[in-house]
Design goal:
The structure holds two protein chains of two kinds. Chain A is mainly alpha-helical. Chain A has two domains: 8-153; 168-376, MetI-like fold. Chain A contains 16 helices and no strands. Chain A has helices at 8-23, 28-32, 40-58, 63-85, 94-116, 122-150, 161-170, 172-207, 209-222, 231-238, 242-265, 270-278, 283-318, 327-336, 340-368, 373-376. In chain A, α4 (63-85) packs antiparallel against α5 and α4 packs parallel to α6 (122-150). The model of chain A has no long low-confidence stretch (mean pLDDT 80). By secondary structure, chain B is mostly helical. Chain B has eleven helices and no strands. The radius of gyration of chain B is 25 Å and the shape is elongated. Chain B has two domains: 2-60; 87-286, MetI-like fold. Classes of the chains: A mainly alpha, B mainly alpha. Chains A and B meet through α5, α6, α9, α10 and α13 of A and α1, α5, α6, α9 and α10 of B.
Chain lengths: 378, 292
């Protein structure tokens, strides 16, 4: 058993660091006036840190320790790089990007080591399931930040995440008003009404087989159509305020709910239905005690699909006319005014709202369909 | 014949019912405005005459089916294909960016799926983000992508196609991951006993097994990329395309035009989904699949 087990990521990181040393200055000011540059010592520190991290990771040690060393090392290098470029945006030279790539490789190695772990405890498994994607997401942000600032990408093209975060915090009241208008009025009301309507229609269709045979193909076809196109019509009918957006959401959420519920009501097996018949239970008893619970996974699937569709519908409908508040309105006007950081802040809100919405539906699903194999098996 | 009796009759009956309902709604929704008009010009038409008038307004609140059909027919067959009022021309503009985006999206989706199936790191770190990426209402980002790319000097087809790409890669990626993992342990073991390399297992077992999954998810993806292309035309004031027709109709209250554009979009969507379905069946037959 050898003492070393070098990974290609670590080796490549060391090669990149050496290349960075040979190429010299990390940014133009550093090259121009070495004496005036306040962070002269930083570069040596960064390279040393990166190389040390890579070397430690190549030694055969406990994977947990290795992951920890890589985690600290990679993120420290990234932090030093980003804080070193502050005030000198747009002046980065090749070594800056080489070191960034080296740090990213170390981060990748860290994720690779973590994915190789097979902990026994449940809490450790759950933590790993969260930590691995979190590191991946953090690195997207780090690279975004480092590249936009290092290469000096114009602010109106792609603002760095830190600027978006600052804008987000500074304009909380405006964002809050938009969320109230778009999500708490248009999306929620439309979502509830649309899903209920789809559900009730599905029960009706289940009662009348003729209706079911006709509705299913039509419903399937409609779900492939660009329904979002009804937005201008709804704005014309129901005016600029939230009812028109809620109407678009209702139409968009109706068909997925209908199709999924009808499919779900057919999901209970013959045996179980026969059992209900031997109990002499009527249609409604069978429906409530057997078929609706059996349809729950399908219904929740529709609720999940609809959570995204509802947000999209409400935001896009706002492009066709709104009062001067709302997420879609804000996005389209701020794009026109070239306030791209505000647009990104609004997108972050939309992403957050979408994920929370989806997450809540998924949590309710886990609580309600606790008996289903896909939940029980964990 | 069985499928005829059990499917086509209910579907046509329901469609006929929808058309009748549509007429009823058109009369009800257009009635207030028509009553207004009549009152102003001092006319007192009979019931039948009144209904006839509500169904032939030039800018109705709800156009009647025959008005939409007439508009679609005129703009599809009677106009030259190069005219920018022709629906064929507008549908073609949208279709071209849809197809480009669909091609990008499918390629990207397959690539991601192959990566996820073969690299554990990607599986554990990328998969949650792919799912999270779809909870973001990406269509909201569409205007910005287009305006920003226009600022860099990229205009025309590519920005719209990029939005289509984003919408269409997800179903393909998820479907392909499922498909590439669909071979059973027995089959994988068999490949193992043949001493097959990873590449051989991939090409001879995983890829053929994933084809049905690919086409199923491509049907979803092509519909999604059409939506992406239409919405991509909205914010820039694009001059041509189904989305541009919708926007122009909304600005000038040309309701019949909006409905005609919607019909055109739906026809394109149905054709695309059908084309993918037929391609899937052809590939299936070429690979020696038998109808189950």
């Amino acid at each position: 058993m050898t003492r070393f087990k070098p990974s290609w990521q670590a080796m490549l990181a060391i090669v990149l660091c050496l290349a960075a040393v040979i190429l010299g200055a990390m940014s133009k000011p550093e090259a121009a006036a070495a004496a005036a540059y306040p962070y002269l010592g930083t570069k040596g520190l960064i390279i040393g840190l990166a190389v040390a991290t890579a070397l430690v990771s190549a030694i055969r040690i406990q994977p947990v320790v290795e992951a920890l060393v890589l985690f600290v090392g990679a993120h420290l290098v990234a932090w030093l790089l980003i804080s070193g470029i502050a005030g000198f945006e747009g002046t980065a030279l090749a070594p800056y990007f080489l070191l960034l790539a080296a740090a990213w490789l170390l981060g990748w190695r860290c994720v690779a080591v973590l994915s190789g772990l097979r902990p026994a405890a449940d809490w450790a498994k759950a933590a790993l399931r969260l930590v691995i994607p979190a590191i991946f997401g953090a690195w997207i942000l780090i690279i975004w930040e480092a590249v936009t600032r290092g290469a000096g990408i114009p602010f109106i093209l792609l603002p760095p995440p830190s600027a978006i975060g600052a804008r987000f915090v500074n304009s909380l009241p405006v964002l809050g008003a938009d969320v109230r208008q778009t999500i708490f009025k248009a999306v929620l009301i439309g979502y509830i009404v649309g899903n209920l309507a789809g559900f009730i229609t599905a029960i009706l269709a289940d009662r009348v087989p003729f209706l079911r045979r006709g509705l299913l193909p039509i419903g399937n076809m409609v779900s492939a159509l660009p329904i979002i196109g009804v937005a201008p019509i709804m704005v014309m009918w129901f005016g600029f305020d939230w009812p028109s957006k809620a109407a678009v959401v209702i139409i968009m959420t109706f068909f997925p709910m209908l199709v999924n519920t009808v499919a779900g009501l057919a999901a209970s097996g013959h045996m179980e239905r026969d059992l209900m018949r031997t109990y002499a239970s009527g249609y409604w008893q069978t429906l409530i005690k057997l078929r609706l619970p059996a349809a729950a996974p399908f219904i929740f699937n529709a609720l999940k699909i609809n959570s995204t569709l509802a947000l999209i519908g409400a935001i896009v409908a706002e492009f066709f006319g709104t009062p001067v508040v709302g997420m879609g309105f804000r996005i389209s006007t701020e794009v026109g005014r070239m306030n791209i950081d505000m647009v990104w802040a609004e997108i972050a809100v939309a992403a957050l709202a979408g994920s929370v919405f989806y997450g809540v539906v998924a949590l309710v699903e886990r609580a309600v369909t606790f008996w289903h194999p896909s939940v029980r098996g964990g | 014949m069985d499928s005829f009796r059990s499917k086509i009759i209910p579907v046509t009956t329901l469609l006929a019912g929808i058309v009748v309902l549509w007429y009823v709604f058109a009369v009800i929704l257009n009635a207030p405005f028509q009553r207004d008009l009549d009152a102003r010009s001092g006319q007192t038409p009979g019931t039948m005459e009144f209904i006839g008038k509500t169904l032939s307004q030039p800018k109705p609140t709800m156009p009647a089916p025959h008005q939409v059909a007439q508009n679609v027919f005129e703009n599809t067959f009677l106009r030259s294909v190069t005219s920018n009022r022709s629906l064929v021309y507008n549908a073609w503009v949208t279709l071209s960016s849809t197809l480009l985006g669909f091609a990008f999206g499918t390629a990207l989706g397959i690539l991601i799926a192959v990566g996820i199936v073969h690299v554990t790191t990607l599986d554990r770190s990328l998969m949650p983000w792919i799912i999270a990426s779809q909870t973001i209402p990406i269509l909201a980002v569409a205007p910005m992508i287009i305006v920003v790319l226009a600022a860099v000097g990229i205009t025309g087809l590519i920005p719209k196609a990029l939005i289509s790409t984003y919408l269409s890669f997800f179903p393909v990626a998820v479907g392909m991951v499922k498909g590439l993992r669909s071979p059973e342990l027995m089959h994988l073991d068999l490949m193992h006993t043949y001493n097959a390399s990873r590449a051989q297992t991939f090409w001879k077992l995983r890829v053929p097994a994933s084809v049905p999954f690919l086409f199923t998810s491509m049907k979803v993806a092509v519909a999604a990329s059409l939506v992406g292309a239409i919405v991509g035309e909205l914010p820039t004031g694009a001059v041509a395309g189904i989305g541009a027709k919708l926007l122009a109709g909304a600005y000038y209250s040309q309701t019949v035009d909006i409905w005609a554009a919607l019909v055109a979009g739906s026809v394109v969507a149905a054709l695309l989904v059908m084309a993918v379905g037929i391609a899937g069946r052809l590939v299936d037959r070429a690979m020696g699949g038998r109808p189950a």
